[in-house]
Amino acid sequence: MNLKPLKGQHHVSAITANAKKNYEFYTKTLGLRLVKKSINQDDTSVYHLFYADERGNPGTDLTFFEIPNAGHTYKGTNSISLTSLRVKSDDALAYWKKRFEESGVEHDEISHHTGRAALGFRDFEGQRLTLISDENNAGVAGGKPWEKSPVPVEYGIVGLGPVTLTVARGELTAKVLTEVLGYRETGTIPAYEKGQPSIRVFETGEGGTGAELHLEERNDLPQERPGRGSVHHVAFRVEDKKQLQKWVDWITQSRLPNSGFVERYYFRSLYFREPNGILFELATDGPGFETDEDFDSLGENLSLPPYFEAQRESIESRLKPLDTKE
Hints:
By secondary structure, the chain is of the alpha+beta class. The protein has 5 helices and 16 strands. The strands form 2 sheets. Strands 2-3-4-1-13-16-15-14 form an 8-stranded mixed beta sheet. The longest helix has 14 residues, at 90-103. Residues 8-134, 159-285 form the VOC domain.
């Protein structure tokens, strides 16, 4: 079938109950650029916000669906339990620790738990995040921070790092990662909590921080009940539309129920759930976010794919205004 290996993380999509506070935190505190203000294409009454590097290069996107009535997240298994964001150096983490202290952001101490310098923190809704140093990274290259960010470019976030999957039945997920998606199991890191099994490490493509998954098996937790501050899905990079169609055929041949080819305008996608119920997406690197906006004005206006333009007036009437031109 001539499938090319997945290239690493494409984006992570999470849930927020407050688009305005979300926008303020991720742009003004974390210094990411809002590269697209759009809608959830499966529910046009809510925003879909895309934060990334300067132009939304694949592998740098952290996105949020606004669900105003989203309840509390009850953490547990069968979830994407930790999202990491890459910075260029160990020194950058010292900058971020001070920034978090000054901004009142809940954070941990700098650690080397995974063999890389990292700084765990939570957003205002308890979204579980960590900054991870790329100082010794030899894999997938990061993106380029936006020059107009409130965070100095040398300390800016350059993309997504390892994503942690917490599941009740680890071997089932591992089998899909290796036998279906082509990941390599490369080792382990210590468990986050004493008495728990080591966390298994998988990588794809060029490897490194931008192409790594961490698989944590927990038999002592209930299944997660998602809400605000939880992660909806993780997406992995596919080179182009032609390769994606091959992946559609392969996932179907592997007897995994899936969405088939889905047009998202800014990229093309395929969705399926692995055996523990976590939603995976395969997404193409292009066409990208400059399809309908110039580089200088990315994220300033409500962007709708052409197939929603006829509904613009109705869609805008249901959305709470969100000023992103600041």
